[in-house]
Amino acid sequence: MAKTKQFCTFFLQDQFFGVPVEQVQEVIRYQEMTQVPLVPAVIRGLINLRGQIVMAIDLRRRFAMVDRSDAQLPMNVVVRTGDGAVSFLVDEIGDVLEADEKDFEPPPQTLQGHSRELVRGVYKMHERLMLVLDTELAIQTESVNSRGAN
Amino acid sequence: MSDEDIVKEFLVESYENLDRLDQELIALEKDSGNRETLASVFRTIHTLKGTSGFLAFNQLEALTHVGENLLARLRDGQLTLNPEITTGLLSMVDAVRQMLASIEATGSEGERHDEKLIAALTSLLEAKKESEAMAAPAKEKSSQTAAPPPARSPAAVPANEDQINHVVEGATQRQPAEPPHMKEIPSTRTAAEPSQGALDAPSLQPPARGQSASDSTIRVDVGQLDRLMNGMSELVLLRNQIVQYTNSTDDSELLGTSQRLNLLTTELQEGVMKTRMQPIGNIWGKFPRTVRDVARGCGKQVRIVMEGKETELDRTIIEAIKDPLTHLVRNAVDHGIETPELRRAKGKNPEGLLFLRAFHEGGQVNIEITDDGAGLDFERIRNKAIQKALVSADQAARMTEREITNLIFLPGFSTAEKVTNVSGRGVGMDVVRTNIEKIGGVVDVQSKSGQGSTVRMKIPLTLAIIPALIVVSGGDRYAIPQVSLLELVRLEGEQARKGIELVNGAPVYRLRERLLPLVYLNRELRTESKPPDAATSEIQNINIVVLRADDRQFGLVVDEINDTEEIVVKPLSKQLKIINTYAGATIMGDGKVALILDVMGLAQRANVVGEARDRSLTDKEQPTSPGAAERNQRNAVLLFQYGENGRMAVDLALVARLEEFSRDSVEVASDQEVVQYRGQIMPLLRVSQVLESKFRKTEDNAEESLHVVVYSDKGRSVGLVVDRILDIVEESFVMQPQAGRKGILGSAVIQKRITDILDVPGLIAAANQSQLLARAQA
Hints:
The complex is a heterodimer. By secondary structure, chain A is mainly beta. Chain A has one domain: CATH 2.40.50.180. Chain A has three helices and eleven strands; from the N terminus they run E-E-E-E-E-H-E-E-E-E-H-E-E-H. By secondary structure, chain B is α+β, with helices and mostly antiparallel strands. Chain B folds into five domains: 169 residues, Four Helix Bundle (Hemerythrin (Met), subunit A) (Up-down Bundle); 54 residues, Orthogonal Bundle (Helix Hairpins); 182 residues, 2-Layer Sandwich (Heat Shock Protein 90), CATH 3.30.565; 146 residues, CATH 2.40.50.180; 147 residues, CATH 2.40.50.180. Chain B contains 24 helices and 32 strands. In chain B, a hairpin with a 2-residue loop joins strand 27 and strand 28. About 16% of the residues of chain B have low confidence. Classes of the chains: A mainly beta, B alpha+beta.
C-alpha cells in the first residue's frame, strides 16, 4: 500500500511548488498590504487577516526571481509556522494534489543557491516536478541569503 | 458552591499560603524578633486549622492544632524561636503539604502516621515552657498585651521595633488569612487611617468561603482574562470599523445603532480592563520588609509610609514595574537616607522617611518615591561623570542641576562610594529607566541637596489598548503612542520656508526659543515621499510632531497628521521585531494595518538619544568633519591580508571564530568548497576569488592550511578563506564609502595604511550570484 501525502500547490514563475496541506491555514486572493519600511525586501508587508496581523513574504523575492509585473497580483498561501501565521505571496494557486512517497527524491545536486536551501525535495508527478517548500526556512527572512534578492 | 469547589479553593489558597510559610519560617529563623512575620505565620496556620476542621479533615486539623499552639507561644513571647522549633515547624509544613496533595488526588488526607511529629512538636512546646519560665518575667508585659484567645487573633504587636515601626493590624474577625501586607499600616499615619485600611481590605480580597451566602468575588484564571481581553480588542476594532463606515451613510437608524454600539463597547472595554487591574499595594506590600532589611543592613533607621495603595494598574504593568520599584526603594534607603548620627548632626529626625505615593492622573498612573535623605550630590555626580568620560569637564561645568540629575540615568553610572550588597552593582538607574520606558512610562528625578530626592514615574494604565496619534508618511499611516506626544506644530507659508534652519546640516526648529532637532520620518524609514527640497521650493506646510524620548525632545516631520484614536496593540512577528523602530501594529478603522512607531527606537535610530549620544558627548571634543561624526567611532576590526599586498578589515562583531583547516579537510559538495565544522557543513568562500582581486595570489600549495574567518548568522556559518590573518585592532577611523564594489563597504586608514572594509553579507550575496551566473553559462 503506497503512502501518500497531500500538498497544496502553487506556481512561481514557471516552477511548480507544493506545501504539505496540513501546514496551510488557508489560501486567499490578493490582499492589500501595509509596507514595512527598513525590513528586508522579501517581506512585502502586513495583511489584516480577519483581525490577525500576518506578515507577507514574497516567494519570488525569496527565491531571487524577478518581480512579477504590477498588473499581476499575487495570491496568498497562509501557512502556520512556529512564529504564527505567515502568508507566502505566489503567482497562482494550483490544485491540492496527492503525492506518493515513492516518487520523492532529495533536491538534485544541480539545484543551488536559494532553491537548494528552501526546497526539501522533489516529487515526480505525472506531468511535472513538484518542489516541496521548506516553510520554516522560507520565513527566515533575516538569513544571509535573502539579502541577495534585494 | 459545591463541596468540591470549596475543597478546590481551599487547596489553591493553602498551597499559596504554604509557599509563603516556608519563606517566612526561614526569615524568622534569621530574625526571630520579627513579630509581624510571626503573626502572619500564626494566622496562616490558624486559618488552615480552622478550614480543615470545617471541611472535616481531622488529621490535618490535629496536626495544625499543635503547630498553632506552638506558634501562639512564640507569638506571645513565651517561647523564642530556635533552630529546633523551626525544623519542627518546617516538618509540619511538609506534612501538611503531603496531606493536601493527597486530598487533591484522592479527596482524603490518606493514611497518616503523624503521631511522632505531633509528639515532637508537643515536646518542643512542653520543654521550652519550663526553661522559658525563668526568662519569662522580662517578657511578661508584652505578652499580656498580645494574648487574646488565639481563635480571634488580632495580634497587636508592640509598636516599637528597633528600626521600623509597624502596627500589624489584626483586623480579622473574618476567617481567611490575608496576605500580611494588607495589614501593614505605618504607625505614623493618623489614627483614622488604619481603620480605613481595614475597610479597604475586603474589596480587594476574596471573602471567606463558606462564610457568607453572598460571595462577592471569585477567583478567575488569568488565561481566561487574557482571552477576554483579546476578544475585547477585536470588538474595539470592529466598532472602529463600523463607526467609520456608518459616518459616511445617511441612514439615521444605522447611525443611531452604531452610536449605541460605540458607547456600549467603550463601557465594556473599561469593564474588561478593570478585571485585569490590580492594586499597586500588591507589590508595595513587600516593601516594608525590604526597607527594614536594607536599613538594618546599613545601620539606618527608616520608616516607610504609603499612600494610594489601592491605585490600580493592569497586571502586565504591575509585573513590569515590580523590579524597577524595588530597586528604587532599596536605592533610596541605601544611598538616599543618611545614617542616624549624620541626620542628628544635620538637625533631622534620626529616623529617615520613605514616602511612596500612587495616584491616577490623566489616564496614567503616577508613582512617586520620596526620601528625606541627603539628596543628590551634584558635585559628585559631575565629577563622576567626568571621571567616567560620560561628559567632558567643559560640558559638565555648563550643565544645570537638572541636566546633572539626568546623568544618573546613563548606563554604567553609580555614585555609591561604597559598593554594598544592595546597590551599586552596575545595574543602576539606567535599567530602571529602560524598564519603565519599555512599557511606555517615563521616569524623572528631582532632588534638593540636603532635603532628599523624589523619583516620579508616569505609567500607562494598560498596554493592550492605547490612545495614539495617527500620522501619514510616504502614503502609509503610522500610529504614535500618545504617551510620547508633547505637542503638534504646523508651519504654514512663510514659516514653512524659513522656520527650519540647519545646524551643521542637521535640521532644527526654534520652538519657543529652544532648538528642537528635527527628524524626517520618511528619511528615517527610507520611504518614498516628496523630496525634501520640494518643501522649500514651493510653499508647503510642514507638520512637526513634538515627541519625548529619554527626556529629550525632538520633532518628527511627517506628511500629514490625522486624528488620535484608541488603537489595539498587536505584537509583531519576530522578523519585524529585530528592527526596533516599531512597537507593534494595529488595525485601523478601514481594516488596513498600520505600524505603531517605537518612539525610543526611532529616536535612537535618528541619533537623538541612546548609545550614540553618550559617545557624541565625548566625541565632540575631537574636531570632526561634518557628516563624519557618525562614522568616526572606535571600531574593533580584524585585519587580514588578501592577495599579495591587499589589506582588508572586517568588523570584529561579525566574526565568530578564527579557524585553520588543513587542505585535506576541504571537500566539494554541489560545486562548492565545504568543510565539516562542528557537526555542520560549512561552505567556504575564498575572499580574493569572490572579489576577483587582480592581485590574487597564485594558487600555490605552499601553505598546508587555510586561514578561515568564521562568520555566523542565525546559527549558520560561512567560512571566509583569507590569505593571512594580520591583527585585531581597535581604532577610530573614518570610512570612505565605496560604491560599486560588491563585498566592500569602503576603505579607511587603519594603522596608517589604507584598508578595505569587508561587507560580509554583501560578499556572500556576491558569491551566490557569481555561482548562479556560472551555472547559467554552463
